[in-house]
Design a protein that fits this description.
alpha/beta; two-stranded parallel ribbon; globular; binds NADPH dihydro-nicotinamide-adenine-dinucleotide phosphate; binds 2-hydroxyethylsulfonic acid
Length: 259
């Protein structure tokens, strides 16, 4: 097992869901953190709590991953501080809406493409050179089962996660000859703020997604990310798919019981 103690992990989208749970778990293991998200209050509170509780170093950067200049500023600031992340977790992302392609909102499509694909690319392009200079580390991309199988009305969200899958494979190939490895962690249905965001605050619609079964919790996905991040340097898990037990594919969910 490869310890996280004393390492630096950069987590995009740490203000909620998987990113937040991963920050807490990594902090517990003594990992210093570079946290990002757009909600300043949450970031500040998170920084304070994790520093106090675990005695680790936490840097926080409030910005939108769609803003290339801000991604570059983050990299410049880290370089200035002589910090090269050991682990980059590309987690920030969202689904905006769910509708047939012929009814889709262009603004939703752009938000998903710009965040899930271009934001991941911007961060990776800015941060990876710092990691390559040290010639070790790991990139973990949060993909989705939505990047393996398309589902009705998932269209553009599916396309962005198929893109994450392709980019994950491409990053892995391009890093051959370096000590940096790359993995995508692809969860199925998980109860975070994801569906509230997708359905634009419609709590009832969001709750329906998880009705009648036990979905993954943010901590479950954080545990998987921790496992991937603590494999020995010569072991490269390139992809992990994780479903809740009640869900066996994008199309098959047993909603008859609480598992
Ligand atoms: P949450 O909505 O709980 O968390 C999303 C995080 O991403 C928040 O911290 C949010 O922070 C951040 N984020 C979103 N857009 C931006 C942006 N433009 N710039 C910076 N940060 C941003 O959802 P999850 O934790 O579930 O989602 C995390 C990832 O997991 C996403 O990529 C999602 O697609 C993926 N996923 C989710 C699944 C699920 O069922 N929940 C299953 C499979 C994959 P803030 O709003 O403060 O900017
Ligand atoms: C989130 C999982 O099935 O809601 O990526 O698209 S799903």
């Amino acid at each position: 097992m490869n310890t996280l103690h004393g390492k630096w992990a950069l987590i995009t989208g740490s203000t909620s869901g998987f990113g937040k749970a991963t920050a807490e778990l990594f902090a517990e293991k003594g990992c210093s953190l570079i946290l990002t998200g757009r909600r300043a209050e949450r970031l500040e509170a998170q920084q304070h709590i994790l520093e106090e509780k675990y005695g680790i170093k936490v840097l926080s950067y409030c910005f939108d991953v769609r803003d290339l200049n801000k991604c570059a500023e983050l990299a410049n600031d880290l370089q200035h501080r002589e910090i090269a992340p050991d682990i980059l977790i590309n987690n920030a992302g969202l689904a905006a809406g769910k509708s047939k392609i012929q009814d889709g909102l262009i603004q939703d499509w752009e938000e998903m493409i710009d965040t899930n694909i271009k934001g991941l690319l911007y961060i990776t392009r800015c941060i990876l050179p710092l990691m390559i200079e040290r010639n070790e580390g790991q990139v973990i991309n949060v993909g989705s089962t939505a990047g393996h199988i398309v589902y009705p009305e998932g269209n553009v969200y599916n396309a962005t996660k198929f893109a994450v899958k392709a980019l994950n494979e491409a990053i892995n190939l391009d890093l051959v000859g370096t000590g940096i490895k790359c993995c995508s962690v692809d969860p199925g249905a998980a109860e975070t703020e994801f569906s509230q965001v997708r359905f634009k605050g419609d709590e009832e619609k969001a709750a329906k997604v998880y009705e009648g079964y036990m979905p993954l919790q943010a901590k479950d996905v954080a545990d998987v990310i921790l496992y991937v991040a603590t494999t020995p340097p010569h072991v490269n898990i390139t992809n992990i798919v994780v479903y809740p037990t009640a869900q066996r594919s994008v199309y098959v969910i047993d909603r008859n019981k609480e598992a």
